[in-house]
Amino acid sequence: MAESKEITTFEELRKLRLADDGYIVIKDTARDPIVHKINSTCISTDNFNVKVILNERRTGSYFWVDSVATAGREFGAKRCKVCKPETHYIDPSALK
Questions:
Q1: Residue-wise pLDDT tens for the chain (96 aa)?
Q2: Domain range enclosing 27
């Protein structure tokens, strides 16, 4: 069963990253959703603070997902070109 959960606090983000399981989808008003490895350097606490805390999710949101497939299905997320999360879970053509 596919799982996803919105991340709304630093504590949630910290616990998820410590667990080192799953992926992070960043939805942004300026670009398409992107899926990242959970502990990638692409996931910045400063950016999380601006998007989620200070702007109260008006300019973007962070979500935990259990797989790259869930990210693609639920959010239409594309694979990050920097951290390159696994592609063997879904058809790579869906990540272009």
A1: 679 999 999 999 999 999 999 999 999 999 999 999 999 999 999 999 999 999 999 999 999 999 999 999 999 999 999 999 975 555 555 555
A2: 4-90
Contact yes or no for 62/46 (Cβ under 8 A) = no
Residue 95, domain member (yes or no)? no
96 domain-assigned: no
pTM: 0.85
> β-strands 34-37, 78-79: how paired?
parallel
Question: With contact defined as beta carbons under 8 Å apart, do 57 and 9 qualify?
Answer: no
- Counted domains in the chain: 1
